[in-house]
What we know:
Blueprint: H1 2-19, H2 22-38, H3 42-45, H4 47-54, H5 68-79, H6 82-95, H7 98-123, E1 126-127, E2 133-134, H8 137-145, H9 148-161, H10 164-182, H11 186-201, H12 204-232, H13 238-248, H14 260-275, H15 282-286, H16 294-322, H17 333-345, H18 347-380, H19 383-402, H20 405-429, H21 431-450
Antiparallel strand pairs: 1-2
Amino acid sequence: MSGFMNSVEELLTTISGIVWGPPFLILILGTGIFLTVRLGFLQFSTLPYALKLAFSKQDKKSEGDISHFQSLMTALAATVGTGNIAGVATAVVIGGPGAVFWMWISALFGMATKYGEAILAVKYRVQDERGRMAGGPMYYIEKGLGWKWLAVLFAVFAAIAAFGIGNTVQSNSVADVLDSNWNVPTWITGIALSILTGVVILGGIKSIGRVVSFIVPIMAVFYVVGGLIVIFGNLDLVPAAVGSIVSDAFTGQAAAGGAVGVVIQYGVARGVFSNEAGLGSAPIAAAAARTDYPGRQALVSMTQVFIDTIIICSITGISLVMGQSFVSGDLDGAPLTAATFEHFLGPAGSIIVSVGLIFFAYSTILGWSYYGERCIYYLFNTYKAVFAYRVVFVIAVFFGAVVQFGIVWSLADTMNGLMAAPNLIALLGLSGVITAETVRFRKRMKEEKNGTATWNKS
C-alpha cells in the first residue's frame, strides 16, 4: 500500500511541477504587474485608506449579506492558514531562503490582482433563490466575458480545490503537528475538526462570518506577537537572515538542485497558496459584502494580501531562516516552524505554533467550505446540492487528517493552478472594466472628501 501511495505522490508532484511551470508563473506574476501598471500602482497609494476602511463601521443600507470586516475576515480565514506556517516552511526547505523574497514579490503585485478580482465580483454578483449574494469568477467570466464554458471549468476546479487547499491540507497539518508535539492520534484530530466544521458551516455565510470575525483577529495577533518576540529577541540574527533571503533569491544556492527557477517556483507557489491572489477564491467572499461601490470592497479585499503575506508570512519566513543553523534539517512543514519557535522561546514557542496552526487551519476550512459550496450552487443551481457538498466536505476533513502529507500538498498545488488559469484570463480580458470602475470610485472618493457625495445603491 505504501508503494502505491508513493507512486501517487510522485505522479501528483510531477503534474504539480508542470502546472506551476514557467508559463503559469509568467501568467500569474504578469497579471499582477499588468494590473499594477494599469491602475497606477494603486495598491501602494491607497493602502492606508484601505486598512482604515476595512476596520471602520459602514452604512448597513448597502446591499450584501455581511459587512466589509466580516468579508475581510472570511477571506483572511481562508488564507491565513497552514500556508503561513507549514507552507512557508516547505518553501524554505525546498526553495531555500530566497523563496521568501519571491513570496514578497508575488504579494506586492498580487494586491493589484486581488483588487481587480473583488471589483469584478461585486459588479457582476447576483441574488440566489434565497436572496443571498452569489458572485465570484464563475459569474464575472460568464456575464463579463460571455464564456460560460470557462466559468463552468473554474467552478469545477474550485469546488475540487476546496478539498485540497481549504480542507485536507489544513486538517493534515493540524494532525501532523499535534501528533509530533503532543502525541495526539491523527484520527482523534480528524474527528474533532470534522464535528467543529459541521456545526458552523450548516449555518451558511452569516454563521461563518460571525465565527471567523471572532477567531481571525485573535489568532492573528496571538501568532504575530509570538513571532515578533522571536525576531526582536534575537535582533543580532535578523540582518544575516534578511541578507540570506535577498541574496539567495537570485543565486538559488540553497535551493534543491541549486537553481534560481526552483527558488522562484516555490516562492511564488507558496505565496499564492498563502494569499490566494489570482486563484479567484477570495472574490467569492467579497461578493457577499455590503458595499455601495465595487471599488470600496476591492480596497478592503486588497488588504488581505498585505496582512497575510507581507506581515504574517514574513514573520514565519524570517524566523525560519534565523533558526536554520540551530534546528534539525530533517524537519519540514509545521513541525519545522514549531521546532524553530521552540528553539527561540522554549516550550512556549511550540505551543504558539501548535495553537496558532489549529485556529489558522480551522478558520481556513470554514472559509473554503463557503467558496466550494458557492461553486456547487453555480453548477447545479439548487441548495440540495449545496447540502450534499457540505456533508462530503465535513467527511473529507477527517480523511485529510490521516492521509500521507506529500499527497495532499501536491494535490492542492495542482488544483490551485487549474482554478487560477480561468480567473487570470478573465482578469486580463476584463481589465478595462476594472479600470473604469476604479475611475468611477475615485470620483466618488473625491465627492466624499469634498462633502458633495450622495448615497448610492450599487
